[in-house]
Amino acid sequence: MDFNNIFAEYPYLTTIIWVIVIAVVAAILERLITRWLRKFIKRTEMPPEVGNGLVLTARLLILVGAIVALLDVGGVPSDILVSFSALGGAAVGFASTRTVGNFIAGIYLLVTRPFHVGDYVRIDGIEGIVKEITINYAKILTPDENVISISTQRILDKEFVNYRFRGEDSDLYCIGLDLTFDHSLSTEKLEKVLNSVIERYTEKLPRKPEYKLKKLTRLERNYTVYIYVKQPQDIFSIRPQMLKEITEAWEKAKAQNQ
Predict the structure, then answer these.
(1) Residue 91 near residue 83, CB atoms below 8 Å
(2) Half-sphere exposure of 57 (CA within 13 A, CB side)
(3) Which of 6, 73, 101, 176 holds its CA 20 to 30 A away from the CA of 162?
């Protein structure tokens, strides 16, 4: 059988064969690369949104490459191929923005180190102890014992607070307990209540708690009690306990004042 004569008689066969070859190679590449990426994502415990972004980016790259190859086989002019490649590159870049952004943000956090593993922080309203920091995310243990993963890009986009007292060289953490009282007690009696509770913690904590009047209105007074601890996990138990004791002492003082 003379294949040269067959191809000469049916020139479209060459195109069909190339289309089949390109499709098969693209399918094999997609399967192998996707499988490898999923193993990598599972091994590194990457957040779902970042992992899905990587897989999508890889698939788009393979798809764009296959389409460009098919257009070339079909005899499409080179200037159209260049335009399509640029369009495909833009689409891939848009799809991978989140992944690249997380990577860059992760590098920045690891270099600047605004907080460390073990620090007590608040990130975009999420408060707790930093359990792990990677290129892609930080794990936060919250007071209700849940572990929340926050992407590094989200950390840089949002306001975050490190409660380490006076910089990274300190061995204390300072957390504020915000309190609101009405005017049923005079300032003198109210602060006497606060002092009585604080005295109970003078020996328990590495530094005596302090309080400040932060806001005064016609209807209420806002105080912040500052609690100092060496172990961030102590915040989980001491803050609610102190809140309970202050509330009970205040209610008792109000009842006696009537």
Answers:
(1) no
(2) 19
(3) 101
